[in-house]
Amino acid sequence: MTRSAAFLRSMLAVPLLLLPAWAGAWYVGAGVGQTNNEYLPTFSTVNASIDDNDIGYKLFVGQQLGTNFAVELEYADLNRLVRHTAPGLNLNVESTTLAASVLGRLPVYPGWTMYGRLGFGLWNTDLDVNGSSGSRTSVAPVIGLGVEYTLQDRLRLGLEWEQYQNVGEDTSAGSTKLTGQNVDTIWLRLTYHIRLAPGP
Length: 200
Hints:
By secondary structure, this protein is mainly beta. It has a single domain (28-72, 80-91, 102-193), classed as Beta Barrel (Porin), CATH 2.40.160. The protein contains one helix and eleven strands, in the order H-E-E-E-E-E-E-E-E-E-E-E. It is elongated.
């Protein structure tokens, strides 16, 4: 088992270890948002900074730990981060990430909650350049800030800025290698709180 896989496995075990004490506080949700980044691919003869964005989506499951904390596991498809075509150049970068985070939550007004996110994501990036392809997986920090509004007892609507750091670093295809980029995403997210019945 690689160090990255072992690290991610330990992160994913956190919600399961907390299940007996917080069996009634699970939630699930989905988000859609726009990604933004600025890649600097390094070619054998040319350096080119490429700024691009796309629409991504994510699915997540979390566990509320009292009023002020939660743990969350998410899968995010950041979609096509770069699609660049020029004379003699056809470059495409796509990325996904599986991340585990701790959320610090602060009620600020009736029905409104602000939160901050700190975690780590296992990202995978696919690079295609002029018919050559390559892929790389690694672990990097994930941070975020958001606000959430309670639509009803179990349903919450939120807006979040989330940053996936160093995505794609050292991914190579042929003579092209990517620098790591911080991918910023603005998510519109919908959360449903399940409220499972406690065990005996």
